[in-house]
Amino acid sequence: MAITGIKGFNDILPGEVRKWQHVEQTARRVFELYGFSEIRVPILEKTELFARSIGDATDIVEKEMYSFTDKGGNNVTMRPEGTAGVIRSFIEHKLHVSDPVAKLYYMGPMFRYERPQKGRYRQFHQIGVEVAGVSDPKIDAQVQTMLCHFFSELGLDEPRLQINSLGCHECRPAYRRKLREFLRERLDRLCDDCKRRYETNPLRALDCKAAGCKEATAGAPSVLDHLCEGCAEHFARTRGYLESAGTGYDINPRMVRGLDYYTRTTFELVTGLLGSQSAVAAGGRYDHLIGELGGPAIPGIGFALGVERVVLLLDREGFSTRPDLFIACHGEAAGDEAFRLMSRLQRLGVSVEMDYEGKSLKSQMRRADKFNARFTLILGEDELGRGTAAVKDMDRGVQQDVSLQPERIASVVRGGDGS
Ligand code: ATP
Ligand code: MG
User: Fold this and answer.
1) Which of 277, 308, 317, 389 has the fewest CB atoms lying closer than 10 Å?
2) Binding site membership of 284 for ligand 1 (Cβ less than 6 Å)
3) Is the CB of 306 under 6 A from ligand 1?
4) Ligand 1 atom, smallest distance to 257 CA
């Protein structure tokens, strides 16, 4: 019997990969526009890095990590997220010494032992950014604006930005106490996970999807009513800068995020189109993480987006890539000329497909259809004799005679008139 792949680990096949490349290229283009540089860090890290940064009482560390002991007896983990490794590297290489502000992005596979379903896998991919060294809320607004900009460049305007503030070490403990008091009388209605987390992480009940937890937490005190002066001002200024950047948002005081290191600003990009896998991207500020991991006491903020979920949204929009031109030909001489033209056009940056094997014209046209080429050009003896051929715009159904010079054809395909 043939060996199959592992459950939750997906192959990304050639047709799919085009969409992935489109997402990755768009991210690079947009992030670099905002002055971010790529960083590449390993997939494997010491287990303690994640335990210490993400937090022991989180879903990820409690039950989702791919951890093992290697042949040398070291406890290692396949990264479940990107921030910890990037910050580890930032500290290890003292990047703050050469530049007080680091704006970094990364992309690659992450690993979590979760129940596989649509939009949720065991190997999945994130594109993320981290900024170290800025506490001013201008940067909060900037990274959220950049995230929204990225989605609109992909033609995805539906996912909506939700923001919240989780307060800081000053004000959150008091809020946590207050919430615990509120939940005490409602404990029996909480799900087992939230009951267990009641002492260590009661905030999680606020965004738990279980019906009982939703019911029990209705009317719970809001974190936004319990921010200290500094956090309240930071949140208000973040909102002001989002507005001045023209970035729309909703406030969601129940968004708590599943990682312990967040302080103040947290945010998600939420879609209504992927069922319960509604978060396409998520992030927040982490003002103590860098210090707690042994680095300088400087603030940070970042987000990560799930590439699989973005690709699912692109599918719904009917995303496809299509070649610029399909050259059909009949006769050997025309086939040779088609090859010459194709080679030149590709050098000019035009994507071209042709039939390599001299099939019937009818079968070539079927192939042109399948490729959904934007333009077709038919070459036969007549066309060779005349030195021109009809280039047909398949979307508009119009055609024009164009001289068989690569530059002319390229210009027509690019929207010029070819003369
Ligand atoms: P969720 O609430 O869906 O479990 P999360 O809070 O665990 O998400 P983060 O850890 O913040 O998500 O990761 C950021 C993004 O990575 C998510 O918004 C999502 O798009 C994606 N993501 C997280 N886990 C998975 C997974 N198992 N499979 C596919 N994508 C994922
Ligand atoms: Mg999760």
Assistant:
1) 317
2) no
3) yes
4) 6
Give dist(CA 193, CA 191) in Å, integer.
6
User: Which uninterrupted H or E stretch holds 387?
Assistant: none
* Ligand 1 centroid distance, CA of 412 (Å): 44
Closest ligand 1 atom to Cα of 59: 7
Is the Cβ atom of 190 under 6 angstroms away from ligand 1?
no
> Which of 39, 51, 48, 87 has the alpha carbon at shortest distance from 259?
51
Site to probe by mutation for ligand 1, drawn from 305, 307, 310, 311 as the one with most ligand atoms within 8 Å of Cβ, is 305
Closest CA to 369 of 379, 385, 355: 355
Q: Is the pLDDT of residue 385 over 60?
A: yes
Sign of the CA dihedral running 233, 236, 240, 241: positive
Ligand 2 centroid to Cα of residue 59, in Å, is 7
Ligand 1 pocket member 282 (CB < 6 A): yes
Cβ atoms of 142 and 267 closer than 8 Å: no
- The rounded mean pLDDT for the chain is 94
For residue range 392-402, list pLDDT tens digits in order.
999 999 999 99
Distance CA 399, CA 389 (A): 10
Cβ neighbours of residue 342 under 8 Å, at least 6 residues apart? 327, 352, 354
In degrees, rounded to 5, the angle at the alpha carbon of residue 409 between the alpha carbons of residues 404 and 411 is 145
Confidence of residue 419 (pLDDT cuts 50, 70, 90): low
pLDDT confidence tier of residue 259, bands split at 50, 70 and 90: confident
Which ligand gives the minimal distance to the CA of 309? Answer: 1
Confidence of residue 318 (pLDDT cuts 50, 70, 90): confident
The model's pTM is: 0.88
- The structure tokens listed for 229 are 């002066």
Q: Is 207 in the pocket of ligand 1 (CB under 6 A)?
A: no
| CA distance linking residue 419 with residue 412, whole number of Å | 9
- Give the pLDDT score at 418: 54
126 within ligand 1 shell (Cβ under 6 A): yes
Report helix, strand or coil for 226: helix
Q: Is residue 79 within 6 Å of ligand 1 at its C-beta? A: no
